[in-house]
Amino acid sequence: MTSPNSANDLPITGHLINGQPVEDAVRVQDVWNPSLGAVGSRVAIASKETVEDAIAAAQAAFPAWRATPPAKRARIMFRYRELLEANSDRICELIGQEHGKISHDAAGELQRGIENVEFACGAPQILKSEYSRNAGPGIDSWSEFQPLGVVAGITPFNFPAMVPLWMFPLALVCGNTFVLKPSERDPGATMLIAELLQQAGLPDGVFNLVNGDKEAVDTLLTDSRVQAVSFVGSTPIAEYVYTTATAHGKRCQALGGAKNHAIVMPDADLDNAVSSLLGAAFGSSGERCMALSVAVAVGDDIADKLITGLTKAMKNLKVGAFSDSNNDFGPVITAQHRDKVVGFIDSAEKQGATIVVDGRTPSVEDYQDGFYVGGTLIDNVTTSMDSYTSEIFGPVLQVLRVSTMQEAMDIIDAHEYGNGTCIYTRDGEAARYFSDHIKVGMVGINVPLPVPVAYHSFGGWKRSLFGDLSAYGPDGVRFYTRRKTITQRWPSAGVREGVQFSMPTFD
Ligand code: NAD
Question: What is the pLDDT of residue 493?
């Protein structure tokens, strides 16, 4: 839903409230095309009043939507799935223009998002209640899962289609109405998937989208009509969102940042480790919360071989514009972020690490103004370096050298983040010990990006997740519903109970 901006003819992405486009373009912000390093469009930044209008629309739509049978809600998701597939080229194009993702990577993101729509299509099954006949004489008891009401979602720039799709399809089929506040840095693809949801036949007001910044987020976190908040983004904001939302009596799940380590054991299949580390560290320019950004090599021998293998393979890495599908990865999101990533490489060098492959000054022909960082490999990193303690969120792979697997695990456990991790080994016993004991929420065994499928749930440990329930899948159903347990008896004329003051036992 874009309209031309008379000032400079750039289209503006607005809001979607009660099924209608809303412009509210008092405040607008530039949206960059990071491949070109140029402003490509603009986005409206919602005022508090606009967000309140969206909440009011969702509140008004709730009673009828709550009463709609789950099978009918699911039917809309079946249509939605087809529309997402049919419009995938346009969605991926918008992701590419505003995020910089290469088309094959954007297609992968969309596919993982669609899998969540497919899970939501099972609404009648996933909302079936638990029933106990004859819990006592003539007494039946059951638990059912009721919707919460108006639910809000706040999402990051790095998956403008997939992360919103983690949230609203499931929240909606559970009977809630929704207000989404996507990232203001790449709003185009998110607005398109919102429009497709309306086309699928969702009643007006059930789903609303507001673009905006802190003002919009704070309105969602404090408005008493919003019952629950799902957030995905960086850890400082996740912590702020969680503490503010829960202080206002809301249910909240806030997924934060990451520093994902791969242990490379001496017996690892090195070729497999090298090729899969390459994709997991540099795919999407390292701007994935599950990116593997640290390899912990157990023993100098495997460390040396790993560095040699990675250095050789990185000679073929292609960084460039999103529009060329031969590229392996594109630019980072903004010029400021590029400078931050380069700053971390500088600091690692100053603090004594070895820059083995240096991506600080990549040459990307025809796109000199784009926000590019080349694939970077750093050896001899230690746990006290700033580049190690912080999330870099760029195409930088750092190697730590340790002597034992336990030493590697202690390092991972000590890090503030616990999103994903992976072990490369041929030893089943070591792998089993690792997955059993490591303090990380999602574990891969020879699998670099262990992003759970849509019918499991996604969530890290430690400061990668604030809240008790992970995103999507079974945890998502629990998050978006409230359990109610009903105990029922229909006394027949002849069987009347006398007054009973002791605790009922149903014997
Ligand atoms: P971000 O925290 O800057 O922004 C996320 C959302 O919060 C956006 O909608 C933004 O508008 C809003 N926001 C930003 N500053 C705010 C403030 N001061 N007050 C209120 N709201 C604010 O994150 P990002 O840069 O868009 O995304 C990258 C981060 O997200 C990385 O740290 C990455 O690891 C994380 N991430 C985590 C997961 C996960 O599942 N754990 C998934 C994707 C991304």
Answer: 59
